[in-house]
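Database export, one record per block. Field names are fixed; values are copied verbatim from the stored entry.
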Amino acid sequence: MGAEVVEQRAPVVEQRALRARRDPGNPAPVVEQRASVVEQRAPVVEQRALRARRDPSGRDPSGRDPSGRDPGIQPPTRRQLLSWAAGTALAGVALPALAACSAPAPLGKIVVAGGESGGFYLEFAGLLAAALQKYGVAKAAVALSTGGSADNFQRLLAGEATMGAVLADTAAQLMGANPGRVVALGKVYENYLHCIVRRDGGIRTLSDLAGRPVGTGAVGSGTTLTARRILSAAGLGPSSGHPIVERQLGLNDGLAALQDGSIDALLWSGGLPTAAITAANGNFGLRFIELSPVLPTLRSNYGEYYERVLIPANSYVGTPAVGTAGVANLLLCRADLDAETAKRTVRLLVNHARDLIPKSSQGIQFLSRETLISTGGLPLHPAAAEAYREMHG
């Protein structure tokens, strides 16, 4: 009977271990307590076996019944002894199994590819890295300064980053060229395309940029792809009769060039407000050009990754409200990221969203179960999709 009891306990222990692995709120000590119950049987077996091997004369120095038992307790049969021994052996096998069933250890290190210094990408990557470490998704996590979306995607492919922030239009293009290698963990926030000019200049509309030098984002940035599409939709592309003079400059170099007059406009895609743009506006005064008129052409030519959004008045001190193009930012990872890390990251995005939003942010965030999954048809990591289903019930 003892072996049967132990055998019945083993599935219960395994079930508890599985629940502990599925639910972070169900602590491992429950499993350990159940294991200790099995362990405690071993001394009982030994004590009973010793009583069975008492002095052949039947005498007990303690004065107890010559049978070697306490009154009212039946002596163990040979079959019971064998059963208890089998139970002890099973406990020895069960304990390593219990350790194997405990929740997987967090990933050793996670690298989150962000963007340029002073931009929202890098700020978000830093907040996410801190949260990944704080909430036990990884033992260590760091944010990586990069050229932007396209650069982040390439770093994922090369294994230099674990996760990365990538614009949805850039992600669609690069995922199509690299099928099955990179997937999404969720849609995290809205990017606002800024068309930035000097406030003391004479530029008022996109058409005023014809023939002028314009910064279109750093090499390796998603801004470059979006900027070129915007300019093409406005009739300012290379094949048009009024092309701009393109300069591939990132955020900080572009703002410096705008200040010294070597470019007349800078296109930048980022969160709202972007810290470096706030600083530049304070230094020499900026104006933002309306981009809403090109949205119908942009969507018709390149898909529904673009939507009309508003940069509210005084998002940058002294500037009026202006309509522009919004592009969702996705958090991507390699397709071979382990399932447990993917699930833990999704739970973090949902349950600790406040930790991931900069205090100065005025833009749209997508850090909820309902919006995180809206990746514009781009594939989610299978474990991320499962985590969203579990949270939806």
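Remark 1: The two ends are 41 Å apart (CA to CA).
Remark 2: The beta strands are 107-113, 138-144, 163-167, 182-198, 213-215, 245-247, 265-270, 286-288, 306-311, 322-334.
End of record.
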